[in-house]
């Protein structure tokens, strides 16, 4: 390791740490406004990995992410590799189904295979003048005072100077670590759930919706693939505890038997279930929170480095893209990096915390088995939304089809749910059938 700061071998300007989904987006935005951007990624170039060997988990593009792609000139290209999804279909244990539209006007989110989107974004960044992608270059430490980064490459380590660092380096962020060393408080935790991916045929399932099978302590969800006529699914079990859990079932055969016990109809249609579960890794769901997202005008955090969340709302990537767009908008407005970074943190931190909370709670919405009181509350909430659309809007619609603040969306959802609970408490299970004038009057009084 060098004991002094070497020349600016990373470009001496802006360094984006991490070349996942958010890193190339940040590089494209910044290079077009502020000159040379170097992207440092610890892993090998995923485009060199044969198709099907990388992460194949589906990701969701909603309006927030699509706006970013439009601004970068990539929306049309991305659209060609996406499947439009207009709602979710729950397959209940009694054999019935329940379809929930994502939007009242039939608008669609886009499902896309992560690997395909990742490759497209990296190609775009690589073709952008001023962007330098460097793979197999792990950032081991960050010194914001210099500022400089300790970079490993070719078996050696070297301190590299820069002016600004954007941390797109995920849950185990080296950039966040530098903020923590200077007083920031961060929490990294692991969700009680873990998951595996399963590719399957669902010939009787509508490819225009997402399908899920709730089981209380487990959940299976599947999206249509664009590259084939199959579906890409994820099975969620508890990490610990009795069956169904990953602790209670180890190895392909035990996992397949557990899967079949919880999802018998699905298992009957997956002939290679045991082989898939034996080959696919069990992935943990990491969560992050950090009370500071920036340090002066030197460093800023984006996406999972400061607000990694559960995947159930499909907003992790969209929120990260919106982080980048907000950060760049602050730079456009302020013209001073320190003031811009401070504005970015002020605008986005509450939203990052809010969407993390929303995403966690959405799992329980999807996995919960039918419960009379919950169903009654849901029915009242739907009536209120239908009756007073100018006042109430479904939470998913607010998150996926608008650019409204996540914090405001969560606050308004709390108000709707509290009102529905008060109506239910006063009028009982039949409250959803109250006449319109009576329901309006109660809502007005509330």
Brief descriptors of the model:
single chain; 446 residues; alpha/beta; 7-stranded mixed sheet; 6-stranded mixed sheet; 41% helix; globular
Structure description:
There is one protein chain. The chain has 446 residues and is an alpha/beta fold. Helices cover 41% and strands 23% of the residues. It has 15 helices and 19 strands. The strands form four sheets. Strands 6-5-14-15-16-13-17 form a seven-stranded mixed beta sheet, with helices on both faces. A six-stranded mixed beta sheet has the order 8-2-1-12-19-18, sandwiched between helices. The protein has a three-stranded antiparallel beta sheet with strand order 3-7-4. Helix 1 packs parallel to helix 4 and helix 6 crosses helix 8.
Beta-strand percentage range: 15-25%
Number of strands: 19
- Overall pLDDT metric: 92
- Which percent range fits the helix content? 40-55%
Which of globular, elongated, flat, extended, rod-shaped describes the shape?
A: globular
* Structural class assignment: alpha/beta
Radius of gyration: 23 Å
Ends distance: 65 Å
Residue runs with pLDDT of under 50 for 5 or more positions: 1-11
Biggest β-sheet strands, sense, barrel = 7 strands, mixed
What is the overall number of helices?
15
What strand line-up does the widest sheet have? 6-5-14-15-16-13-17
């Amino acid at each position: 390791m060098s004991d002094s700061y070497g020349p600016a071998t990373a470009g001496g300007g802006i360094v984006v740490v991490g070349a996942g989904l958010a890193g190339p987006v940040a590089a494209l935005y910044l290079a077009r406004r502020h000159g040379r951007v170097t992207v440092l990624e610890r892993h090998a170039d995923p485009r060199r990995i044969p198709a099907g060997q990388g992460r194949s988990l589906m990701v969701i593009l909603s309006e927030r992410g699509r706006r970013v792609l439009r601004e970068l000139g990539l929306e049309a290209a991305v659209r060609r590799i996406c499947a439009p999804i207009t709602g979710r279909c729950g397959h209940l244990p009694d054999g019935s189904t329940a379809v929930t539209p994502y939007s009242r006007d039939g608008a669609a989110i886009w499902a896309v295979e992560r690997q395909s989107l990742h490759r497209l974004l990296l190609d775009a960044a690589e073709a952008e003048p001023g962007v330098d992608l460097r793979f197999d270059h792990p950032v081991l430490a960050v010194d914001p005072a210099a500022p400089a980064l300790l970079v490993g490459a070719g078996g050696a380590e070297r301190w590299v100077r820069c002016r600004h660092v954007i941390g797109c380096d995920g849950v185990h962020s080296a950039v966040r670590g530098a903020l923590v060393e200077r007083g920031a408080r961060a929490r990294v935790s692991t969700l009680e759930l873990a998951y595996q991916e399963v590719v399957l045929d669902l010939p009787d399932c509508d490819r225009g919706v997402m399908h899920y099978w709730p089981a209380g302590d487990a959940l299976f969800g599947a999206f249509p693939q664009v590259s084939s006529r199959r579906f890409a699914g994820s099975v969620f079990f508890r990490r610990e505890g009795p069956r169904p859990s990953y602790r209670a079932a180890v190895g392909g055969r035990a996992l397949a038997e557990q899967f079949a016990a919880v999802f018998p109809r699905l298992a009957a249609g997956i002939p290679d279930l045991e082989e898939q579960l034996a080959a696919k890794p069990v992935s943990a769901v990491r969560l992050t929170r950090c009370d500071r997202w920036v340090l002066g005008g030197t460093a800023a955090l984006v996406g999972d480095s400061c607000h990694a969340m559960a995947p159930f709302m499909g907003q992790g990537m969209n929120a990260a893209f919106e982080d980048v767009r907000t950060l760049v908008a602050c730079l456009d407005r302020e013209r001073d990096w320190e003031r811009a970074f401070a504005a970015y943190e002020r605008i986005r931190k509450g939203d990052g915390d809010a969407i993390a909370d929303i995403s966690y709670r959405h799992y329980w919405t999807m996995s919960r088995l039918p419960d009379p009181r919950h169903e009654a509350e849901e029915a009242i909430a739907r009536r209120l939304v239908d009756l007073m659309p100018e006042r109430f809007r479904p939470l998913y619609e607010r998150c996926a089809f608008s650019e409204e603040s996540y914090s405001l969306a969560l606050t308004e959802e709390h108000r709707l749910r509290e009102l529905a609970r008060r109506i239910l408490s006063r009028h009982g299970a039949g409250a959803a059938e109250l006449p319109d004038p009576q329901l309006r009057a109660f809502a007005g009084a509330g």
